[in-house]
Design goal:
This protein is an all-beta fold. The chain contains no helices and eleven strands. The strands form two sheets. Strands 2, 4, 5, 6, 9, 10 and 11 form a seven-stranded mixed beta sheet that branches. A four-stranded antiparallel beta sheet has the order 1-3-8-7, with no helix packed on it. The radius of gyration is 14 Å and the shape is elongated. The termini are far apart.
Length: 120
C-alpha cells in the first residue's frame, strides 16, 4: 500500500506563517511531479504549487511571492512554506505525487489533507 502523509497546518493569525510537509510510504519506485492543492468550504480544489523532479516550480497567482514549495528528491518529501497568510488561504491542503510503484502502476497519489485556518 502506498500513501502520502502530511504534517503541519493548524490555526494561525493573518500575516503569520505555516509550513506543511509531506512524505510518502510504501512500494514507490519513482516520483516525478509533486503538488500542493487546497479546498475551501463550498469551493473546488485549487492547485497552489507544484515542483518537478528537476526542481522546476509553478505557483497559482493567488500565492505567488508568499508560498514556496521545496523538495528533497532523495527522500521524496515535499514542503510548502506559507508566509504572509490571509484569511482567504483557509482550507484543507492536500499533497499529491505522480508515482510509479514497484509493481509498475502509475497514478497520482493524494494525501489525506491537513487543515489550515487563518484568522483575521
Amino acid at each position: 500500500q502506498v500513501q502520502l502523509v502530511e504534517s503541519g497546518g493548524g490555526l494561525v493569525q493573518a500575516g503569520g506563517s505555516v509550513r506543511l510537509s509531506c512524505a510518502p510510504s510504501g512500494n514507490i519506485l519513482y516520483i516525478s511531479g509533486m503538488q500542493w492543492s487546497r479546498q475551501a468550504p463550498g469551493t473546488g480544489r485549487e492547485e497552489v504549487a507544484s515542483i518537478t523532479s528537476g526542481g522546476t516550480t509553478n505557483y497559482a497567482d493567488s500565492v505567488k511571492g508568499r508560498f514556496t514549495v521545496s523538495r528533497n528528491v532523495a527522500e521524496n518529501t515535499v514542503s510548502l512554506q506559507m508566509n504572509s497568510l490571509k484569511p482567504e488561504d483557509t482550507g484543507v491542503y492536500y499533497c499529491s505525487a505522480d508515482v510509479r510503484t514497484t509493481t509498475g502502476a502509475a497514478f497520482r497519489l493524494y494525501g489525506q489533507g491537513t487543515q489550515v485556518t487563518v484568522s483575521s
